[in-house]
Specification:
By secondary structure, this protein is α/β, with parallel strands linked by helices. The chain contains 9 helices and 8 strands. The chain has one domain. A 6-stranded parallel beta sheet has the order 4-3-8-7-5-6, with helices on both faces. Strands 1-2 form a two-stranded antiparallel sheet. The mean pLDDT is about 95. Bound molecules: uridine-5'-diphosphate (UDP). The site of uridine-5'-diphosphate (UDP) has 15 residues, from helix 9. Keywords: Glycosyltransferase, Transferase.
């Protein structure tokens, strides 16, 4: 089905298993630049009303997932239903499974110092064999971008998960899409904190 637009913000109408297929496609096809995944909740839709760049960022993404029952309800109200919500943390675990299966390497960027390391360890418990290419708290400040991109490059990552909170994480990915040395990047909000426990 075609995407639903909630107050001008695109949301793809995919079930969890269709998301998995779409993730596989994004990871296996060769694109000139990194592909972005955004998980949209009602706060994203509200923020995108004032912030045009954030709306462009969401609407251009390779995949826009409905993270939150509020989005599922809005889609139903618009008579373009979405079967189920797809959370950021579930998607991160699915990405880890795909990564383990195909030998892709995950880079965990953001969150407080130490949190991404713990989240990586937890992912390796949940998904044996998944390779964590690297972790780095850093910050979304533009002055740090070159250094962070160099860290990702030297870690030889394929998938970059960014936990700088919304919209900072998604805008960070969006403005660096042409430079991120990986196939796929996703904003993951509080997922590292959740996994780290
Ligand atoms: N975060 C960060 N740097 C920042 C802002 C946030 O590393 O400048 C991290 C924060 O530690 C947390 C994650 O971003 O791990 C998500 O933050 P929050 O829960 O506020 O965002 P949301 O889940 O609401 O998008």
């Amino acid at each position: 089905p075609s995407p639903v637009y909630v107050l001008g913000v695109r949301v793809d109408r995919l079930t969890q298993s269709q998301v998995l297929i779409a993730l596989k496609e994004v990871l296996s096809s060769s694109h000139a630049s990194c592909q972005q995944i955004v998980t949209v909740n009602p706060e994203f839709v509200m923020a995108a009303q004032q912030n045009t760049v954030f709306r462009q960022c969401i609407n251009q993404a390779a995949l826009v997932l409905a993270d939150g029952i509020g989005i599922v309800l809005a889609a139903r109200f618009l008579r373009q239903p979405i079967a189920e919500r797809v959370t950021g943390v579930d998607t991160l675990v699915e990405l880890a499974r795909l990564a383990a299966e195909h030998g892709y390497r995950l880079y965990l960027l953001g969150a407080a110092p130490g949190v991404a390391e713990s989240a990586g360890a937890r992912l390796q418990e949940l998904v044996p064999g998944v390779q964590i290419a690297g972790t780095y708290a850093g910050s979304p400040a533009p002055e740090e971008e070159n250094e962070i991109l160099e860290r990702i490059r030297s870690a030889q990552a394929d998938i970059v998960c960014v936990a700088y909170g919304a919209p900072a994480q998604d805008l960070w990915i969006f403005r660096n899409l042409q430079r991120i040395p990986a196939s796929l990047a996703m904003g993951v909000g509080g997922s590292f904190d959740f996994l780290a426990g």
